[in-house]
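Colleagues,

For the teaching module next term, I've prepared a clean inverse folding example: a structure given as tokens, and then the sequence designed for it. I'd like students to try predicting residues themselves before seeing the answer, so please don't circulate the second half yet.
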């Protein structure tokens, strides 16, 4: 795996050595086979982006410069550029820009929840935003902050590896080391940190969330590219459900109901990445509890009504599928 990646993206040995392959391996092992294909395509630039189509046509000797053909290679969001790999994650013309920013925030929230070293989480979030928003990465200097030298070293390492690679789960080993030290520090201070929480655990989860993030943007891109009429009923249904989950998380953020907390423990990105049936189960559980716990919660009723969902019917379909 390491050798292949090196060949493909021409990374230097130094960069290869800096990547946390152990966490990457763990992440992959934890994913179902069906998802592994999608992940693999994404990580190795096999997604059928405009640029890939163009490369294919060029190698087949086709004319890629004609006006008619050019349209095939440009970004589906309409920014006019040739669609390079990962462009859909960064394009400012994405129709779901706000949603994308909220997904990033959900990663930030997860970092707070898992007690990520403060400086490290601020810097990672900042860098993720930098990469998404622009072509230039502004310099970061945190050497004078407390514990800043360590985090500075990690950012410098990740800058060398590349943040495009970070979004493919290729993260610097330094993040793991810093987080191990942070958990140790917290334990020494008497904080209860579960034994499974280690720097390696943290990195594996971080890879998972980051790749969920990217694959979700890929979905937005595909939804934009394919006309509504081309979508299967299942795809439409899945998008509706995901939309509901999004609104549930928003509602939960506005008004926290203790009885519901356990359903919102997982980051939003993880919940919407589940299989469709599992998303349905999740929604049924949450909606029923909302019915019991929060009879006065108007907003939830609105969400349900907006989506034209009849709760009884919803429950029935669901039971029928089980
Ligand atoms: Zn674009």
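(Answer key — instructors only)
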């Amino acid at each position: 795996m390491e050798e292949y990646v090196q060949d493909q993206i021409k990374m230097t040995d130094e960069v290869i050595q800096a990547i946390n392959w152990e966490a990457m391996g763990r992440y992959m092992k934890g994913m179902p086979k069906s998802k592994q294909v999608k992940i693999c395509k994404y990580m190795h630039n096999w997604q059928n982006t405009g640029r890939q189509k163009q490369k294919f046509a060029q190698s087949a000797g086709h004319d890629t410069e004609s006006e008619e053909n050019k349209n095939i290679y440009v970004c589906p969001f309409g920014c006019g550029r040739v669609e390079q790999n990962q462009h859909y994650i960064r394009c400012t013309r994405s129709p779901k820009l706000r949603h994308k920013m909220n997904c990033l925030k959900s990663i930030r929230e997860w970092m707070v929840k898992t007690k990520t070293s403060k400086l490290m989480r601020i810097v990672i979030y900042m860098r993720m935003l930098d990469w998404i928003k622009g072509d230039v990465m502004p310099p970061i200097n945190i050497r004078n902050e407390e514990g800043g030298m360590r985090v500075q070293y990690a950012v410098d390492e990740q800058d060398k590896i590349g943040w495009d690679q970070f979004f493919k789960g290729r993260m610097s080993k330094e993040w793991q080391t810093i987080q191990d030290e942070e958990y140790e520090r917290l334990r020494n201070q008497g904080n209860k940190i579960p034994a499974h929480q280690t720097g390696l655990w943290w990195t594996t989860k971080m890879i998972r969330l980051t790749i969920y993030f990217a694959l979700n943007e890929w979905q937005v891109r595909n939804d934009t590219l394919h006309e509504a009429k081309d979508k299967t009923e299942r795809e439409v249904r899945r998008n509706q459900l995901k939309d509901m989950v999004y609104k549930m998380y928003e509602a939960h953020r506005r008004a926290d109901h203790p009885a519901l907390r356990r359903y919102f423990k997982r980051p939003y990105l993880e919940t919407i990445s589940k299989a469709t049936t599992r998303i349905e189960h999740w929604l049924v559980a949450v909606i029923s509890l909302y019915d019991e716990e929060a009879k006065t919660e108007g907003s939830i009723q609105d969400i349900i009504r907006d989506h034209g969902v009849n709760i009884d019917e919803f429950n029935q379909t669901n039971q029928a599928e089980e």
